[in-house]
Amino acid sequence: MTETQQHTQCSNLFGLLIGEWDFLWHNFAQGKIAHEVKGEWLFSRLPQYHGIYDVFICPSRQETEKSGICVRPRTSKRLYNPKTNEWNTYDGDDDNFNRLRTQCLTDQIIIWDDTPQDFRLRWTIKDIELHSFYWCCEATHDSGQTWTLVEELHATRKPKNAPVPQI
């Protein structure tokens, strides 16, 4: 596969995510669901760049309006690097940002921290369809020999013209 084909393949996977999504997020403790929260994930292309910008809002703006709890969204900027055929991801909130690597496989996107250490996290977006996708966060404590599910979400595309809460 040529460099252009590899970029197109990855760009196409991210392209399927462009738009607004609702999700149900689960946090796990000792292998069981500890928390369940409704959230939103908004994806857009960076104009004139090989890039994606996304905003992860959890709890969702609608849930925030109901509860009065204010949560800062996380944002990510993902820029394609043709030299490595990977995406450099800058992810964080107001307090800190992390630089992550993003690789696209045939049917999934894998994101991880490059920090060499025993404890690491990886995030996977898979089962990407026009109106749904699955995302999970896994942790390893043994340099990647075994992985444990930490968080997951099942996202569904918001209907067009869905009302957007203002906060």
Could you characterize what this model shows?
With 167 residues, this protein is mainly beta. It has a single domain (3-157), classed as Lipocalin. The protein has 2 helices and 10 strands, in the order αβββαβββββββ. The chain has a 10-stranded antiparallel beta barrel with strand order 1-2-3-4-5-6-7-8-9-10. A hairpin with a 5-residue loop joins strand 8 (120-126) and strand 9. The longest helix is centred in the first third of the chain and has 15 residues, at 3-17. It is globular and about 45 Å long. The N and C termini lie far apart (46 Å). The model has no long low-confidence stretch (mean pLDDT 83).
Sheet-strand content, in percent, reads: over 45%
Total domain units: 1
Q: What is the count of β-strands?
A: 10
Q: What low-confidence regions span 5 or more consecutive residues with pLDDT below 50?
A: none
User: Which topology does CATH recognise?
Assistant: Lipocalin
Major β-sheet profile: 10 strands, antiparallel, barrel
Instruction: Return Rg in Å.
Output: 16 Å
Which CATH class is shown? Mainly Beta
